[in-house]
Amino acid sequence: MTSNGKDTVAECLNLPSRLPDLARVPEWIERLAAQYSIPASTQFAMNLCLEEVLSNIIRHGYSSKPDQSITIHFSSPRENFFVFTVEDHAPAFNPVVSAVPPVLSAINENPIGGQGIRLLRQFADALEYQPTSTGNRLSIGFSTAHSISAKE
Amino acid sequence: MPISTEELAGGITRVILDGRLDIEGAAAVDLPMNVIAGSKKAVIIDLQNVSFLGSMGLRALVAPGRAIKGRGGKVVIFAPNELVEKVLKTSGVDTLIPIHHDLQAAITALQ
Known about the structure:
CATH superfamily of chain A: Histidine kinase-like ATPase, C-terminal domain
Largest sheet of chain B: 5 strands, mixed
Largest sheet of chain A: 5 strands, antiparallel
Structural class of chain A: alpha+beta
Distance between the termini of chain A: 23 Å
Order of helices and strands of chain B: EEHEHEHHEH
Structural class of chain B: alpha/beta
Oligomer: heterodimer
Order of helices and strands of chain A: EHHEEHEE
């Protein structure tokens, strides 16, 4: 998805590893959406997936240490398709293949944690993970060629 | 994220959330939701003005919902938008906290 060398990186956002700084992401997505005519349902999916991925990196990958960094590249490799590539320097973690706990249920006390990865897989149109020499690279793709509800 | 409550007939409390239930929003409603969960037994969580729900926001709904049910109470979710409802259903929250789009149906479910 991002390794063909043809993508044009249009934007880049660098974040410190602090949860309050994630408030900058929706503002960024809103600006990108205006620039690239991204519909509201896709913006919702982008916000959902990035919140999950970034908060996981900060809370688990970096163990809430505030002096680390995360870089997010935004690109549009083809018409109606947008990719956020998230790079960190945390221990290896592949959310594409990691186990996901069962959905919440009325008949048990399944933990709430882990549902975020289920949401990531459901709301993203493409996911690609690559370990790097210093951490992780996760590319999250979104298509605007169809409504988000079409994945149901 | 603004949160307000309205007392309805029959001892039902309507909790109205407004805005984004993201990390920041979840942190803002966590304490008041827990207070409600510890004191009310019939609760409608009104999501009609919630524009976004993330995984941290789910926690802010599920933990109080489980607490209310654990005390023998009932809780329902009212009027989430299409995308918020998809988040709820993808994670199975709708099996813990039923979703209603008709207010009278929500009230009836609590009686």
